[in-house]
Amino acid sequence: MDKSYKSIFSKNYIDARVYKAPLNETSKIRLYMNENYFGPSPKYKDAVLKIIDRDLYQYQSGGNKMLIEALSEKYKISNKEILITAGSAESISQIFYSILNSSSVVLLPDPGWSYYRGISELLGAKIINYKINRNNDTFEFDVNDLIKKICKFNPKLVVITNPNMPTGNKMEYNDILKVSKYLKNGILLVDEAYIEFSDEKRNLYKCVNKYRNIIITRTFSKFYGLANLRIGYIIANPDIIDLLYKSSDLFGISGISQKIAIECLRDTDYYSKLKNDVLRIRDKFIESINRETSFYAFPSQSNFVLVDTRSMPSDDVVNKLEAEGFLVRDCITYGMENFIRITIGKEEMMDGVFRILKENTL
C-alpha cells in the first residue's frame, strides 16, 4: 500500500481483517457457501415475464413498499417494523455502523461468522467473544457465559446467529429473551439467515415491541434461493426502524427484485416441499457419516452440516473432495482445527460426498 494513504484513512480501517467472499468457482459443485441448490420457486419467472421498459429505466421509489407489504401480510406484523436491505450482510453492516464506535464493546459468538469481526475492527470497537461449546456430540450456546459478559462489559451490541454458523445449533427462544432482559444499555442483534431451515416453533419477530432492544435480520439468499438478487430485511420496533432508515440506500432494492421475492414468498407449497427435501437429505447424510465412517457429523438446524474429521487433517479431506469436484469449507478459518462445513445439496451430490468420505475414512 502507498504509505501516503495511511495519513488519510483511519488506522482501524487500514488494520481491519475484513471478510472476503470466496472466488466465484463455477467448474465444481460449491458446497462451501450454503447456497440453495434446489433454487427458487419457478413462479419467479412470472415476475420476470411481466418486466416492462419502465421497470428498468426508472429509479425505484416508495421505500420498497411492495415487498414490505408482502412481508407484513405473511408475518402479520406492522409494515413499520420492517426495513428492506440489499441482503442481510447490508442489514448487519447498517446496524453495526449505526451503533458502534471506538468506545463501544461488541459481544460476538465464537465460533462465528468473521464478517462481524471485520466490521467491528473497521469501527475500532472492542471485541469480546462468548462461547459456543462442544458438549459431547452437540454444540451449545453458553448462555451463562454470555450473560456474565453482558454484565461485566456493558456492550452496545450483542450478536446471536440463530441457527449458528458454522456449528448449526440454535439458541432456545426463552434464552434469547433472557439475554435481552440482561442487556440494559445495548442492542441484541439476532441474525436469522438460516431460520427457515430450523424447527422454528416460536417466532421471535412477534416480540420486537415488547423486547424493544431486539433487532432481527433475515435474508432471501438461503431458504428462498435468491442469493444473487441481494435481498434482506430487518425486523424491529418502529423507533429502531426509523433510525436505521436514515442510513438506507437512497432508492432501495430494484422493483424487479421485489416482484420476484413476492412471487417466492407466496409459493408456500414449493418451499414446504423444499424444506422437507433439504431436511430429509441432511439427516440421511448425517446418519450415513456417523454410521459408516470414522468422522462425526453434528446435528444441524440448517442447510449445512459441521463434520469433525478427527485424526485426519481437515485440509486433506478438503483437498480429496475438491479433486473429485466438490468444494467444502475448511473451518480452520473459524479457529476450529480438523472440522469442515458442508452445504446440503441435492441427493446425488450428497451421495457423492459421502462416497468420497467413506473411501477416505481412517
TrEMBL record:
Source domain of life: Bacteria
Domain Aminotransferase class I/classII large, residue spans: 27-352
Record-level Gene Ontology MF annotations: pyridoxal phosphate binding; transaminase activity
UniProt cross-references to Pfam families, sorted A to Z: Aminotran_1_2 (PF00155)
Keywords: Aminotransferase, Pyridoxal phosphate, Transferase
The UniProt record lists the keyword Transferase: yes
Cell inner membrane is among the record's keywords: no
PANTHER family, per database record: HISTIDINOL-PHOSPHATE AMINOTRANSFERASE, HISTIDINOL-PHOSPHATE AMINOTRANSFERASE 2
Protein name in UniProt: Histidinol-phosphate aminotransferase
